[in-house]
Fold this sequence. Notes:
Layout: E1 28-31, E2 34-35, E3 44-49, E4 55-64, E5 67-70, H1 72-75, E6 83-87, E7 97-106, E8 120-124, E9 150-155, E10 170-177, H2 179-185, E11 194-198, E12 203-206, E13 212-215, E14 218-225, E15 236-240, H3 241-248
Antiparallel strand pairs: 1-12, 2-10, 3-4, 3-6, 4-5, 5-8, 6-7, 7-8, 9-10, 9-13, 10-11, 11-15, 13-14, 14-15
Amino acid sequence: MFKLVLISALFALAAARPNRPGLPHLDGRIVGGFDVTIEQVPYQVSLMVRPDSPYHICGGSIIAHDLILTAAHCTTRYQPSEMRIRYGNTIKNEGGTIMEVLFKKDHHLYNPNTMDYDISVLVLSGRIQFSASAQIIPLVASGSGEGGRAAMVSGWGRLSSGGASPTKLQAVYVREVDRKKCNEDYSGPITERMICFMDTYKDSCQGDSGGPLVSSGVQIGVVSWGWGCADPRYPGVYSNVAVLRDFIGW
C-alpha cells in the first residue's frame, strides 16, 4: 500500500520472502478501488514537489485550518520551500487550490530502514478555505482500541503494482489484520506505531503514501509501507494515529 508515492522506488516482489533491510515504500496507488470525487473525501490533499512545476508525489489529510498530516517518508528529503499542497481537487495535478508549506515536523524517531514513526505534520503558509471540497478529518482518540475495524483509504496512487496511475481520485475499503498475523507475514517487526489492513486484491499503492485511512468518520492511519500492492501474502501497513497523537499535537 505504499503508497509512497511517495518516494522510493517500488521493489518487485519476489516469489520467495524478500530480504531486509530496506522496506519498500509503497508509492502510491489504489488497487481494486473505485472513483470518488473530492466532495466524498474532502479531507484528502495532494503533496507536490518542484514549486516551478509542481507534481503529485504523496497524499495527505487536512487536520486543521493550516495543518496537513502525511508520512515522513514523503517529506524527509524535501525542504518546506520545495513542497506544495493542493486541496479541493478530484483530478490529479489539476484544479483546486495550491498552498505553500511554511514548516514541516517530521517525527524525530522516523527510521527509513524500519519505517517506524513514519509520520509528519506540515504547517501551511495560510489558512485553508473550507467548503464542500475541503474539510477537516477528525483524528482517532489517543489510545483507542484496535481489532476488527473496516476502513477506507483514498489517493491518486497506482492502480496495480508498477502499473498506471489514475488521473481521478480513487478509494478502496479494507479490513484490519490482526497485529500478530501481520507481524508473522512480514517476519517482524510490526511495531505499536503500525497497523495493518487489507482485503482480497484491494490495497493502497505507490503514490498513495501519506494518505488517510479512515474508519467510522475518524482518521486512524497514514499510508506507510508494504511489500507489493494487493498481494494477498502481505497486508498494507499504516502509521498508527492513535499511538502518535501526542506527536501530532492536535
